[in-house]
Amino acid sequence: MTNTASFPRRAIGRYPRLDARSNELIASADGFGLSIRSQPQPVSPVVGDANVRDVTIALSSHVDRLKGHISDAVDTAIRTVFPDLYFGLCHAYAVVGSNVASLVLNRDYRPVAGLAVIDCGDGNLMRLTENDAFAGAIGGAYHCWIESAPPNDPDKELVDIIFKHNEAYAKTQGMSWRHKNSDYLWGPYRELVVADEADLLHRDLPAGRLWLQETPEGANWILRHLADHVSVYVELTALAIRLQRAALQADNRSA
């Protein structure tokens, strides 16, 4: 989506070290107090005569709840800090979301930048395909999302948390959103992304699916952007982690 806002440069202490191999984000900040080390979230034990199928269902349900908590926490964190601009900050959702997903789920996720086509309904396609915008300073029509690593994994996941705000974003672009309210996307990439080239899409897309293409220009831009604003992302990631843990604790108390 259009990068409509630049991140404030706020020095909050030492920069983080993100170790992709061990999924660790360790940072300290004067006056902020952040210390995060990734650990798998505890799963309530399944007892009694539960068979393997019961255990599998219980684990799947737990992971699904974690994904919901992650998406909600990332959304709340970004909307808290940027209440008026959140629907255009796909890059923030991608960076913070990949950080939190990696930490909570103990799996590598990465922010991805490139091009997208999103169906607003009634054949009205929103084309975020300005690859040249990655070279400019004022942003443009592109998109950022999250993928599980490695990129060539045929079973990789797609995560697009800001997808739930497509209606708000479309309205800022003078387009009508004619679908029911959208939600975040999180699932197998091959099931959520259509394979057609962008210039061949002249029809409605299946509900809940979109066209995506990572580009070298986008990949270089997202790395530069993260390096320029790493302190802000430390703060946003820490806030999202706290919100996610609070939601998990509330779930456990009500169970």
Note the gap between the termini: 38 Å
Rg, please?
19 Å
Q: Which residues form runs of ≥5 with pLDDT under 50? A: 2-47, 52-58
Helix/strand-derived category reads alpha+beta
Number of domains: 1
Main CATH class: Alpha Beta
The string of secondary-structure elements, in order, is: EEHHEEEEHEHEHH
Total helical elements: 6
Number of strands: 8
Strand content: 15-25%
Mean pLDDT: 77
CATH fold description: Atu2299-like
- Give the helix proportion (percent range): 25-40%
The main sheet comes to:
6 strands, antiparallel
CATH structural architecture? Roll
Tell me what the structure shows.
This protein is of the alpha+beta class. Helix content is 37%, strand content 15%. The protein contains 6 helices and 8 strands; from the N terminus they run ββααββββαβαβαα. It has helices at 52-81, 90-105, 166-172, 189-192, 216-228, 230-254; strands spanning 17-19, 24-26, 109-119, 125-128, 143-148, 157-160, 185-188, 211-214. Strands 3, 4, 5, 6, 7 and 8 form a 6-stranded antiparallel sheet that branches. A hairpin with an 8-residue loop joins strand 5 (143-148) and strand 6. The longest helix is centred in the first third of the chain and has 30 residues, at 52-81.
